Amino acid sequence: MKNKMKILFFLLALFFVSCSKKTESKVAYNKGEMIISTDESFKSVTEALVEGYMISYPETKITVVTNKEDLGFLDLLNDKVRISVMSKELSPEEIKAYEEKVDMKIIPAKFAADAVVFFVPKDSERSSVTIDEIKNGLQSEDKNFVFDGTNSSNLNFVAQKLKKQPKDLKFSIIPGSVNVIEELKKYPNKIGVIGLNTISRPYDKGAENLREMIKILPVMDNGKSYAPDSEDLKEMRYPFTRVLYFLTNEGNFNIANGFIRYSCTQLGQMIVEKEGLQPYNIYRREVQMR
């Protein structure tokens, strides 16, 4: 009887180990499903990286949802998404909330240099904008700066750069970055504010059409002009350069961390570059001559 019981326990143990291994095998960096939250301003580069990852790993399914940056961060804390794409510098309170709810130290995975850009319609006589004009304009009742929405990444970032709270700024809103571009010509004295990635894709017809409608304004600071181009982004000279990064609530190396690693490797950085953004991790090519 005792021998039979031992055999039974042994078989049960094998069964549970087998089930455990099968469960674990379903979760890996190269298979499974997850959701990524991104602000509209970084949607294009996020989708491009997701497409590349799913081509490399056909057993993965990644869904990209568009949400305001602040709301995407809250969804990450509440386990509604596995990754949130961010640009703003988190406050001490937000860092504390992340580390308490996710139960991990916060480690931003930086992958691209993007920018907030200021623009006018193509036929506008204005050719640049100064830092002082931006500061003063965002305190004026004229509300001459037009953003794509409240709590958008663009508004949050500009407010941080000016050391202000978004609620303390005065501005106009046209919901959606593309709408800001298409409708700004109705308001000739105003300046539009969008994320570079909205128009940065060099070989995309839609982005090309949007670029043809506007004039991007260099930003003047202390008498020097800076443009949101590859050189000024690479050297972080453009005053409104921002670094995009991933946050995840995944504590092990499964699909989320697999995607993050992919995005920061050479292949992912090539995708970032093709999106017209500046790769954060720059790979030097060395050629040996013999």
Automatic annotation (TrEMBL):
Does the UniProt entry include the keyword Signal?
yes
Q: Which UniProt keywords apply?
A: Signal
Q: Where is the signal peptide?
A: 1-21
For this entry, the protein name equals: PstS family phosphate ABC transporter substrate-binding protein
Asked if the record carries the keyword Signal, the reply is yes
Chain segments annotated as transmembrane: none
- Superkingdom field: Bacteria
Q: Start and end of every PBP domain?
A: 30-263
Q: Which InterPro entries match?
A: PBP_domain, Phosphate_ABC_transporter
